[in-house]
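Q: How would the structure tokens look for this protein?
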Amino acid sequence: MVSARQAALGTAGGHGGQRLSDLAYQRILEKLFERELPAGAFVSQGHLVELLDIPVAPLRDALRVLEAEGVLKIHPRSGIEFIKPGLELTKSTYQFRTILERAAVRVFAETASAEDIAALAGSHEALIADIERNGLSADAHAALEGLEAQLHDAIIGVLGNPLIETSYKRMHNYLRLLRLDRRLTPPLALRSLREHMAIITACAARDPDAAEKAVQDHFSAALQRNMGLY
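A: Here is the predicted structure in token form.
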């Protein structure tokens, strides 16, 4: 049941000033990432209201946004179908990343501080050594996810463009959905980290051409990995 307080809040929100529609958006994605809402699931609107503890009106707003983004499909008077990520979404996601980061990494290579670049290199080298020595533990897997976000967020962040940053964060949600069923092995993890190191090394050398090529190569290889080609 939706509480009187929730109904009164509507889309205005009371969660630290956050709009309830935004909160609903985040909670739906969290449930997908946690597999409480499996990709391919078909659920009712009422079930989502109870699961997310969000009123109907802001939930509908969030569902419309997620439908436009290709995460789900609303079937009137029937229910909500969560789309299982496929080949087209995978290709579109990496195309989007490549377009943005090829431009951004050129700026990053020329303007990022030497200290920030050195810190990224050190973190990657330490994780590579750990995986080579101990394999891909749960902690190493989490560290890999953290470095993935750290590097690419830093590259995008250098543009200082809030519209691009917002779009990029939402695109990262698609990546997490794409990776839910990915089987990550130590060789694949090391390959990704070494591709990161190629980007970082080019930036440390202040070589935007090499940095752009390294980003292109990384995303081309990552797309193939996510498509299960190697």
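DSSP finds ten helices and three strands in the chain.

The chain has two domains: 4-82, 87-226.

Upvote if useful.
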